[in-house]
Specification:
- The chain is an alpha+beta fold and 324 residues long.
- It folds into 2 domains: 253 residues, 2-Layer Sandwich (Beta Polymerase, domain 2); 54 residues, Methane Monooxygenase Hydroxylase, Chain G, domain 1 (Up-down Bundle), CATH 1.20.58.
- The protein is built from 8 helices and 7 strands, in the order E-E-H-E-H-H-E-E-E-E-H-H-H-H-H.
- Strands 2-1-3-7-6-5-4 form a 7-stranded mixed β-sheet.
- A hairpin with a 2-residue loop joins strand 4 and strand 5.
- The chain starts with 6 loop residues before the first strand and ends with a helix.
């Protein structure tokens, strides 16, 4: 099997932080006494499904869950084997982080099979550490490290989202343009998209702590428990960020409404001042005979004076009523 048919990498842990890379022939020849085997596969490859049943001896029900199109994050224990589905942040070039990556894990005491389609930096970083002889030393530590990396990237993404919303809150005080309203709507959409997947993942990690099989050591159980706690805090922060975005949107809408009302109020006052003046000017401007004082040189200035007095009287009346 080559990359084109589903094998991304196969590593045998040496128990000291390093690993030996295997090709597909080496995978077929592997035995538990050789060391813990970590297989990373592309579940969309045509022959992965058959290999899981025929060679890995995975039950049909578990195989179907491993290659399911869009599985819900969860953790299930079957005898000593674990089935775990994780959601990780999509950090591939050109992708939206909220379009999360599905990582499926079938863990046994001496073998861990991970399946994914799109690249995951969490998985890649763990493999890189093993190649550098600074990685996990057992199946339990490998599972705990992988979960830890997935949760770390989620926490960083949630923190970034919270910082963006905080920056938008500050901008509301000085900027009410359409760009800010659009940015707030996008941040709120991202928070909702993350919350959709991370809620079940918190439940899955919490359950994993309680059902962890004996081959996962106490130290690794504690590490998984800590990751579950970090996930819970990330979701709480996400919910807070979502609520802050909603409140900021409401504040922005309130400020926009207030500004609109103030402008309409000013226009109303201007209209009230000039409406009588416009009426008089329109009346005197009619092209018919009988307009008084039309031949008097002082009549124009008298009319201007009357207008000034009238405007002054209107302004005094507006101020007395508290309209100005």
């Amino acid at each position: 099997m080559s990359n084109a048919t589903g094998l991304i990498h196969a590593l045998v842990l040496d128990g000291a932080g390093g690993a030996t890379e295997l090709d597909w022939a080496g995978v077929l020849a592997w035995k538990p006494e050789h060391g813990t085997l970590w297989l990373n596969l592309d579940y969309t490859a045509a022959d992965v499904s058959d290999w899981l049943v025929e060679h890995a001896k995975v039950e049909d029900l578990t195989r179907d869950a491993l290659i399911e199109h869009d599985p819900r994050p969860r953790a299930v224990l079957h005898t000593d084997d674990l089935f775990v589905v994780l959601r990780g942040i999509n950090q591939n070039h050109g992708a939206e982080p909220e379009d999360m990556i599905s990582i499926r894990v079938h863990a046994e005491p001496a073998r861990i099979i991970t399946l994914r389609h799109r690249g995951s930096r969490s998985v890649t970083s763990v493999a890189a550490e093993l190649r550098a002889k600074k990685g996990p030393r057992s199946a339990g530590e490998l599972l705990g490290t992988l979960i830890d990396r997935v949760v770390d990237h989620i926490v960083m993404r949630v923190d970034t989202l919270a910082d963006d919303i905080a920056a938008a809150e500050e901008r509301v005080l000085s900027d009410t343009r359409g760009e800010l309203r659009t940015a707030l709507a996008e941040l709120r959409r991202r928070a909702l998209a993350l919350r959709r997947f991370l809620g079940p993942q918190r439940e899955g990690l919490t359950r994993l702590v309680s059902i962890a099989p004996p081959w996962i050591e106490t130290k690794q159980r504690e590490r998984i428990s800590e990751s579950a706690e970090h996930m819970s805090r990330a979701i709480e922060e996400l919910e807070t960020a979502r609520d802050r975005a909603a409140v900021t949107q409401e504040e922005l809408a309130s400020r926009l409404t207030e500004q609109t009302n103030q402008r309409l109020y000013v226009l109303s006052l201007i209209t009230a001042v000039f409406l009588p003046l416009g009426f008089v000017c329109a009346l005197l401007g009619v092209n018919v005979g009988g307009i008084p004082l039309k031949d008097e040189s002082w009549a124009f200035w008298a009319l201007c004076g009357a207008f000034i007095v009238g405007v002054g009287a209107q302004l005094w009346f507006f101020r007395k009523r508290g309209w100005l």
